[in-house]
């Protein structure tokens, strides 16, 4: 992923978000097929709960495959596991404490990406604290149980990405709830568009999903 300290503008790029993985080895052929379908900037690896040693081994299984394809591997994992597993960076749910620890221990050798942002103020604080990107649109992390894990309204995500892209230098990732949403996020100049389950559940397979997403991304960027 592009470093936030690089000011040159880039076209919108694709980020893939894995399911919660408990069998990375079994997922590798699926992931390799998706990566071979077109340029992917990064993969955010998500993992089912496990002990630290198992988590490190899961990261070690995925990171080389992603890196060989020319993409960055960002792990949703504790800082220590990110370092020991050889990931290119960490993707974390925003808290000031977690971000401060990640930046102090990982930057600048590894990237620090932030999601779970509840407000514009949270996003601006994350950017000022050293985040290499901010992500809008992934499932809510909420104090209210009925909202936890629920995707926010997509129109609100597009509006927030457009606001950020126009005002700030720190790269912004827009999370698309489906492949069709990629075009709208590219149109408002998201630096990256993230896709999760719609890629892995695509009826024609992940490679077809990536190809379709890239085509929509080009259409949105050209609008």
What this model shows, in words?
The chain is an alpha/beta fold and 223 residues long. It has a single domain, classed as TIM Barrel (Alpha-Beta Barrel). The chain has helices spanning 24-36, 52-68, 79-85, 96-106, 120-128, 154-167, 181-187, 197-200, 206-222, and strands spanning 13-21, 42-47, 72-75, 89-93, 111-115, 133-136, 172-175, 192-195. An eight-stranded parallel beta barrel has the order 1-2-3-4-5-6-7-8, surrounded by eight helices. Helix 1 (24-36) packs parallel to helix 2 (52-68), helix 1 packs across helix 9 (206-222) and helix 2 packs across helix 3 (79-85). The longest helix has 17 residues, at 52-68. It is globular and about 45 Å long. The two termini are 24 Å apart. 45% of the residues are buried. The model is unreliable at 2-10 (pLDDT under 50). Keywords: Membrane, Transmembrane, Transmembrane helix. It comes from Phreatobacter cathodiphilus.
| CATH class categorisation | Alpha Beta
Let me know the largest β-sheet: 8 strands, parallel, barrel
In the CATH hierarchy, the third-tier topology is known as: TIM Barrel
Question: What overall form do the CA principal axes indicate?
Answer: globular
Mean pLDDT, to the nearest integer, reads 92
The second-level CATH architecture is: Alpha-Beta Barrel
Q: In the residues, how many domains can be counted?
A: 1
Name of the CATH superfamily: Aldolase class I
Uncertain regions: pLDDT < 50 for 5+ in a row? Answer: 2-10
What percentage of amino acids are in beta strands?
A: 15-25%
Whole-Å distance between the termini? 24 Å
Over all CA atoms, what is the radius of gyration?
16 Å
Largest beta sheet: what is the strand line-up? Answer: 1-2-3-4-5-6-7-8
What's the number of helices? 9
Structural class: alpha/beta
The residue fraction in helices comes out at 40-55%
SSE ordering:
EHEHEHEHEHEHEHEHH
Number of strands: 8
């Amino acid at each position: 992923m592009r470093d936030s300290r690089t000011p040159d503008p880039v076209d919108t790029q694709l980020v893939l978000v894995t399911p919660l993985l408990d069998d990375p080895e079994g997922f590798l052929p699926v992931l390799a097929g998706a990566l071979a379908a077109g340029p992917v900037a990064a993969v955010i690896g998500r993992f089912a709960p496990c002990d630290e040693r198992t988590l490190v081994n899961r990261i070690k299984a995925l990171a080389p495959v992603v890196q060989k394809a020319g993409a960055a591997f960002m792990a949703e994992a504790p800082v220590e596991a990110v370092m020991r597993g050889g990931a290119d960076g960490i993707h974390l749910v925003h808290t000031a404490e977690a971000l401060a620890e990640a930046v102090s221990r990982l930057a600048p050798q590894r990237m620090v990406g932030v999601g779970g942002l509840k407000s514009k103020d949270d996003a601006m604080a994350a950017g000022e604290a050293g985040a290499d990107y901010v992500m809008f649109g992934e499932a809510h992390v909420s104090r209210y149980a009925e909202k936890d894990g629920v995707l926010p309204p997509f129109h609100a995500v597009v509006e927030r990405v457009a606001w950020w892209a126009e005002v700030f230098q720190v790269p912004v990732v827009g999370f698309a709830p489906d492949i069709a949403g990629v075009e709208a996020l590219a149109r408002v100049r998201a630096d990256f568009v993230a896709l999760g389950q719609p890629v892995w559940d695509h009826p024609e397979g992940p490679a077809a999903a990536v190809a379709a997403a890239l085509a929509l991304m080009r259409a949105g960027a050209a609008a």
